[in-house]
Amino acid sequence: MNTIAPYLLTQRLLLLIGTSGRVINLSSAAQSPVNPNALNGRVRLSNDFEAYAQSKLALTMWSHVRAAFSDEFATASGLYFDNGKGQFASPHPDALDQKKSDVIVDAIEAVLAQKSA
Questions:
Q1: Where do runs of H (alpha helix) occur along 26-88?
Q2: Residue 117 lies in a domain
Q3: Which residues form the domain of 85?
Q4: 26 found inside a domain
Q5: Does any domain span residue 116?
Q6: What is the pTM of this model?
Q7: Residue 11 to residue 50: CA distance in whole angstroms
Q8: Judging by beta carbons within 10 Å of its beta carbon (0-12, 13-18, 19+), is residue 10 exposed, middle or buried?
Q9: Among 99, 101, 79, which Cα is nearest to 88's?
Q10: How many CB atoms are located within 10 Å of the residue 82 CB?
Q11: How many domains does the chain fold into?
């Protein structure tokens, strides 16, 4: 899924930018519940769109996106900005479920540990 590289990059950037820095991850309105077994390659998804939609929700689940440079977003850490609506909105319900988010982060960490071994 295309959430693993942004996750790893963000983890490394956070060490450099400190608490005043911002990392922005772009997601999509096309989001669907994430299958951790698909994330680690144990389950094959039926098509590319399904993989895309799962990866976009996974990105939202672990990043709680912060926008850069604008004072409008200075206090918006962790909020989901719906570009289509031009305002903050509720993300997919799974992105607000801490247990589901923890499962996704654990799955990403397992993939990264496997790749570095």
A1: 36-39, 48-63
A2: no
A3: 4-111
A4: yes
A5: no
A6: 0.69
A7: 26
A8: middle
A9: 79
A10: 13
A11: 1
